[in-house]
Protein 1
Amino acid sequence: MSTSFSEGVVILSRRSSKRKTKSSSSLSSSSSDHHQAEMDMKKLHDHGHSHGHDKSKSNNNNNNKSKRRALVSFWELPEYMKDNEFIHNYYRANWSIKEALFSVFRWHNETLNVWTHLLGFVLFLGLSMANFIQIPQIADLISLITRSFPISSYANVSHNSEDFIPQGTTNLIDLKQINTSSEMDIAPPLTPVTRWPFFVFLAGSMFCLLSSSICHLFSCHSHNLNIKLLRIDYAGITIMIITSFFPPIYYIFQCDSHWQFVYLGGITAMGIFTIVTLLSPSLSTAKFRTFRALLFCSMGFFGIVPAVHGSFVNWDNPKRDVTLAYEAAMAVFYLSGTGFYVTRVPERWRPGWFDLAGHSHQIFHVLVVLGALAHYGATLVFLEWRDSVGCLNINV
Ligand SMILES: [Zn+2]
């Protein structure tokens, strides 16, 4: 770890020295060898190569081993890796799987892309586990409450046989009596609503974040793997968008399976169409960046329909504004993230300045995690609301 960070410092200091070289390029004072500097300038004009790598320019033809591990510039990249011309340096190209794996602890222009979504994955894994462990506790709590009903309402109707029936069996009998009771003045026990749509969303988010991290870490290996990983990455984004729809649609329209089916079916069909479309290799290229963003956005905009529908249906629900605020925050995070992804701001303003930190893709990654967290917050409110309300007094 310590060597990787010192390496990062070296890279950063090298970058600042290069900026100096660029600003005072006519003097070429940073180079000890004037002739070498002239050669570099010639290379710059010949290949549009604004600042080459110190190591590679001094000994280009020898030392194969160190060259394999050296970071290269945009202009030295194989064609398939030339995705963002505003990021000039610190690329890994054609690295072995092992080298790519261990580069997770090295500074290069994908380090923060990997870590932003890797930490996001760990965060969602933690949230999933916390909720998963909580379920039996909630179930216990609910059954504890429901047990109190039989005790209070049937306290005077004592059954002698109860003394001989195990506790669990008694509860089952009591619950059955309550459920089939025609006395509606006694509030029926509420069971917690099913959690699967919530876990579908968490699983979808984890899949997206993990596949994105893997894609950023290993796509430098080969053209073949690069194409495969990019497809998985796009499929991950699509799956995250689709699964995000499950909790709100399921819980809002829980008491009207018709709309549940229409909306969940609609978004799933859109998602499948998007995945199939993106499987075409030509659509994975830089040229179709905007097209991909539009596909993802159209799935997001699809959500406006059930959101407006759900808001009208639950117009008097006190939780309506809270969930809308959460979902609006999610929309702002996702849309601004997409904006960074498409425009490639800020690196387009200062090419070469944000190679290691602060470029658009890293900002996009952070906004995706924040958007997913906002949606997670909204989902908790939906769950709590549906747990407490059930399907009573709902006019959908
Ligand atoms: Zn990414």
Note: The chain is about 65% helix and 0% strand.
Protein 2
Amino acid sequence: MKILLLNPSHPAIGSRIPREHLPPLGLLAVGGPLLDAGCQVRLIDAEFGPMPVARVVSEAKGHNPDAILIGHSGSTSAHPGAMRFARALRAALPRAWIIYGGVFPTYHWAQIMEFEPAIDFIVRGEGEETIVRLATALERGDSLQTVAGIVFRANAIPGCRRLMKQGSSGQALATPPAPVIRDLDACRVGWELIEHARYTYYGKRRAVVMQFSRGCPHHCHYCGQHGFWRAWRHRDPVKFVAELARLHREQGVELVNLADENPTADREAWKALLEALIAEDVPVILIGTTRAGDIVRDADILHLYRRAGVARFLLGMESTDEKTLQAIHKGSTRAIDREAIRLMRKHGIISMAAWVAGFAQETDADYWRTLRQLLKYDPDQIQALYATPHSWTPFALQEARHRVIQTDLGRWDYKHQVLESTRVPNWRVLVWVKSIETVCQLRPKSLLRLLAHPAPLFRAGMRWYSNIGRRVWCYEIFQWLFFDRRVRHGPAVGEFLKEALIKSPPRITDPVPTMNTTKMSDETTMTQPLKVLYTAKAHTTGGREGGASRTSDGRLDVKFSIPGGPGNGTNPEQLFAVGWSACFLSAMKLVAAKMKVRLPADPAIDAEVDLRAGEDGYSLQARLNVSLPGLERQVAQSILDGVHQACPYSKATRGNIDVAINLV
Ligand code: B12
Ligand code: SF4
């Protein structure tokens, strides 16, 4: 099959101002397996220029592909632009299949298939294995229903060239989700699809984007990464480094932008990667994103970070307010964030602190406090962003009634204010954000590091960011004043994102209603069979009011009564609180042992489970107030973060009910 990969140009200022581009890893990741499957593959990267639609169409016609694959990593804000390319390509190449993939189409497939007739297929979730299965099914004329993880039109006739059954419905049908790719080393990136000399970053250094790990074990409530990738996995450190070294030797690559959501999630795996990098001794600079908690956890091995080439880490700190950090389930604290910055400074790694406006309804006083706290944190660089409610996150559900002031999805790129500010006028949010950026970047300490830091690479990183920052700062204000259109009384988030989509945030693993999902091939089995360790059996009669429950061994024999009502029975919330906190405490011992931390003799948990009533009926929310007397707060917090990932009750409740794990 002849395949054309298209990276549409992105309107974000981050794509336009630096005049440097990184390779589109998502497309190259699907390109590699397609090449290995025998397809002829070519890439058009419309970011360069950027290329106008007409030129892309004319180049595509010259290639005359059987299928055009469109996707962009900046998925939501890239969507309107991607659709402009898709419509023009559909008109010019009616016999080519158009296949769309990435995060936004994974979740918004129903709307896209309804409103964008140019799109024939959507690949949901990670694309490497699914795209090969789809291309093979098309080539062989196999039934599309056997391909897990796709959305297709009912009238599509499988074949190399696009053909639709006349007179039958083009209704969208979705197949069950594809399994998670367990062996990341089995999928190779199609590096031969790019000319490396065109891709530079961080001050004209030849650059690539690479992924050591996928997914994230954390559940910040505004972020969808854990749901998209479903499980945190990593590549073999040695194989990863061998690939990087080859790119350095053969293509002159000098810089790797790590695409990982959370490369440091597993200390052992990350340390193995650092050691492999040091052993290989390739002079490649690494930049990426990680969590402050992981930096603090790794205080004893930060020298390895630096020796391995880590020059800068962006720390997604998001807020300097403890309450907001808890509300967004960040799993970090002010103390941890500050400590991470201090440690990075000690080891000569640039710290870029990402701060997000709009997670709380800030007042002028809040912005003022934020500025003062950021100054105390003293990061080397700051990135100010705006809260953006993606439909697949709990944050969107929480903000469902909040008004949207930016209805152009192309501007949902974290650099435009999307949600209405209710406590200060919207224009003043801009003034605060821009002032905070200015003060942080221009304070003497920052300027001193920019001009006189002893390490040339550190100075270069500061200079690069400050050059871009200056231009972006002016451009954003100019755009705000003259071009960005905002609406005064815009639709509510729920209305804007389509009520149905956010009633409950969609998940890749949600059952798909449009077709029979019972027939799944062996390949589509989602998980390995699990060994059942123990089965609790309880016989319950009568329910909450006057009911009773007894376990099969008789060790628990309880009666139920309504709290505050007659009777002295217990209730399901109490039982849940007891069960969860007991399991959480056990998991804490395991996690602490793994982290080689000795727990205090008397750890305790006060669990609180609320039964709530709202528009959607009854629901639960819970708080585990954990006391770890005598343990250093940062260490204790890291343990709790780990336990919340490991405890089976935490897993069961995750994403379903509001939970706060508080260190008291
Ligand atoms: C590296 C990176 C960048 C780099 C380079 C981007 C590039 N050239 O690829 C830079 C710094 C330039 C950048 C800029 C921006 N980024 Co950025 N970036 C990332 C980062 C860290 C990694 C992206 C990546 O390569 N992932 C790995 C690849 C393999 O995953 P993928 O692209 O999703 O592809 C897989 C699947 O989605 C699917 N797939 C994808 N496309 C297609 C297409 C087809 C046809 C098929 C079949 C399958 C398929 O298969 C792939 C393999 O499994 C992510 C965060 C993250 N960890 O994902 C943010 C992220 C993608 N960025 C984001 C944003 C918002 C932006 C900006 C808009 C920010 C700004 N205002 O400037 C700009 C957009 C411009 C741009 N050029 O992307 C958001 C997107 C949110 C969203 N869902 O819309 C992310 C997810 C960060 C976040 N946590 O929110 N970014
Ligand atoms: S740690 Fe980062 S990637 Fe992970 S859930 Fe939070 S914001 Fe998302």
Note: Residues 2-174 form a domain with the Rossmann fold fold (CATH 3.40.50.280).
